[in-house]
Amino acid sequence: MKKVTLGLTMFVSAISTLVEGVEDHAWTSFRDGGIGSSIEAVVPMEWSPDKGVLWQIETRGYGQSSPLLWNDFIYITYVDGPYKDLSVVAAIDLKTGLVRWEYEFPTSQTDSSWYAESRAAPTPVIDKDGIYSFFEGGDLLAIDHRGTLKWHRSLTKDYGEIDSGHGLGASLAQSDGAVFVLVEHQGPSYLLSIDKESGRNLWKTERSPGISWASPIVAELQGRRQVIVSSNGSVNGYDAFDGSIIWSHDKVVGNTMASVTVTDNQLFVGAKGDSGTFCLEFTEDSKLGTYRKIWENAEAVCNYASPLVWEENVYIVDSRGFVHCLNRYDGKHRFEEKLTDVCWATPFAVDGNVLFFSKNGVGTVIKGATYYDEVSTNYLWDLENPPYPESYVQNPPESSFSSPSFVDRLNNSDQDGDGLVALSELDSSLKRSFSRLDENEDGVIDKNEIAKVEDRIRANSASNVFDDPIVYGSIVGKRSIVVRTGTRLYNISTR
Q: Mean pLDDT, to the nearest integer, of 206-213?
């Protein structure tokens, strides 16, 4: 284990203020809790690479989690090394972009670091006592604001290795005294409540196996604090105190990425399938766990970004990059407009406006109205010359079509030199690809089929939708908008 501390004299003074002072401004979890509200802040509504960006820094490794904010410190997580060998939590000065401390440790369960696997995707949670982080390698830990470890657990050691084709993406949720962890994969899946102080289990609830990237949220419905999970065909409400199931809504299609949003007594679910986005309403005078679906809109289909609810509007961004604005109370369309690209980061509302960060770094600001009224279109970088990672290099597994050695391994598998590769000649890591490669189904892979693989690799390399840079998250402070790509952090500020 290694901990790196920079700028010590200034750092100690700043940390003392941070820990002992009262919270001034904070963004404490993924989507800041997933409770629809507008943020009070004085932030730029126009910016460009040469105007309004206070600083930008290249980070070590790669991270897909959202940044967090506590007073004048930004917190991020990332993984480093070709096999995500190290997992890292870092604190960065909001005003200067200087790294104040980093806490790193060997990852419990390593895997290839590349676009088809999550890379520090779960967003941590933060409170006055520190930051609580979870990584797809199964490591769960708490660190105080000075960068000192409080406790560390390996969930892979406790409950077995994580078996998922794309890693884990569910972010943490929290209450005053507990951290909630959702682990969904092809093996035994579960929802955990962890005591913040000790790291011990408060409760553990089993869930059906299934791969999902949707995150739980904590909200109060019908007077009961609940942990709400939307994933793998259902939406469930669990009692935050003991993990017992309170209610369940089944037969949902395509709810494996977007998370729910709760505003007042309404719960908004982003999904695909026949229902699209829909709203469940819980009334205070009804029996605990009873609800009714008050509307659904099959044309408003969620993709990566979760629903944003602000005042009487619900904003959805689909897989084509179209913004759908719906009436909160009946689900009817108010408008539909195209952004420059799809959104992986959930939009947010601030000072009467709604901000969308497309994956290509374009920030679109519109008025929070019942009609489409664009305020500005802004750029973090030159779209013709984007800032590619300076040091991070993907490491696809050799069995992947994306690996440069894939074709060489196919050719080298021709053990008898007849120019044909039979299934029996392939090693185990390549055998699962045989049916896809043998296009004419003659029982062998010939030179023409290998040439087609080479063509596909070149085409994918030239037009991969997962190519960096990608905006994964954006948050708001009193005077700053902080934006994160896989390897870079931006502070757009009025300072």
A: 93
